[in-house]
Amino acid sequence: MIRIQNIYHMLAYAFQILKNQGYASCSTEKFANTADLLSAILVKSVNIQLKRGLGRTYIENTGPLSCLKGKIDVNESIKGQTIIKHQLICTYDDFSVNSYMNRILKATIELLLRYDIPKTRKKSLRNILFYFKNVKKINIFDIDWKLRFNRNNQSYQMLMSVCYLIIKGLLQTTAEGSVKLLQFLDEQQMCRLYEKFILEYYRKHYPQLKATASQIDWALDDGIGTMLPTMKSDITLNYKNKSLIIDAKYYAHTTQFNYNVTKLHSNNLYQIFTYVKNKAAFGGDVSGMILYAKTDEEIQPNNTYMMSGNKISVMTLNLDYDFAMIAKQLNGIADEFLTIKQ
Q1: How far apart are CA 293 and CA 252, in angstroms?
Q2: Please, one GO biological process term (predicted)?
Q3: Does the pLDDT value for residue 182 go beyond 50?
Q4: Residue 283: what pLDDT?
Q5: Are both 64 and 209 inside the same structural domain?
Q6: Tell me, what's the pLDDT at 321?
Q7: pLDDT computed for residue 81 by the predictor
Q8: pTM of the complete model
Q9: How far apart are CA 231 and CA 228, in angstroms?
Q10: Of residues 108 and 23, which shows the higher confidence score?
Q11: Using 50, 70 and 90 to split pLDDT, how confident is the model at 22?
């Protein structure tokens, strides 16, 4: 279980721009569902962007013009006999709002209007849609999310991230090719948000730590690592000679039940053990933790093991608590395992 309001807090850490004053009302407002929350964030974000002006890009156009512009296509002008109408075929660049990112924004707004969100939110979305009348439609199933950001469009970075969550969370193609609306944010998307939230929380509140999603080197005897997979932690906290590797997991079930016995997920435990032992081989005090998002299951893991000289813990974080309690849990992890006094 997770409170909708806590999804806002998680997004606020994942996208620090949400800490700005313009989004303050989202931290106290009540939302009907997650789509309602993200649509509220999108409305505020787009309104802020509208005050700056919608991003524009140069788009190449070719067509008959009465006034010369750009490059004249003589051959096409002769073939089309446009000279009869006192026109020439020209290829020219138009500085247009019909950019790829604006097309994604328009598609996201139109998608939200089909979903179960309050009428007042839909009215706000329709008001925004008016400013996209010169933006063409885009097939949401063909969107290339490998977007490039620079100084001119960096204000769109958070916007595109929210659009990604909305589109991926609301849509699914059935076997017949039809579109199905989902409940919102599947396990995989929530897992990514959960990881990013924890990482950014420690970066903000524990500046004395070095909090990274770092790569872990294999401890190789001969230095030959051809074809070995990359090991990358979700969160690694470093303080002096101490390291805590956290593997954040957002699952529907935090344990597995086999032969009437409740056990930990073996693959998760093998993974964190591998991370810890390889990092420890290079020296320092290394600990590991699997931090599950708590479910409503009766049995929740809360165990600590000493494995070949390293501490490995399996714990849960209750995302259905008031956010102040969530922060207290995260602070407790840093204080206990890294012996930090704030």
Answers
A1: 9
A2: DNA restriction-modification system
A3: no
A4: 92
A5: no
A6: 87
A7: 75
A8: 0.71
A9: 9
A10: 108
A11: low
Last residue of one domain, picked from the residues 96, 127, 162 = 96
Same-domain pairing of 121 and 67 = no
Number of domain units in the chain: 3
- pLDDT value at 286 more than 80: yes
Same structural domain, 20 and 75: no
11 with 156, same domain: the answer is: yes
Instruction: Tell which of 44, 68, 96 closes a domain.
Output: 96
Check whether residue 21 and residue 158 sit in a common domain.
yes
How far apart (Å, rounded) are the C-alpha atoms in residues 42 and 163? 8
Tell me the residue range of the domain where 228 lies.
188-338
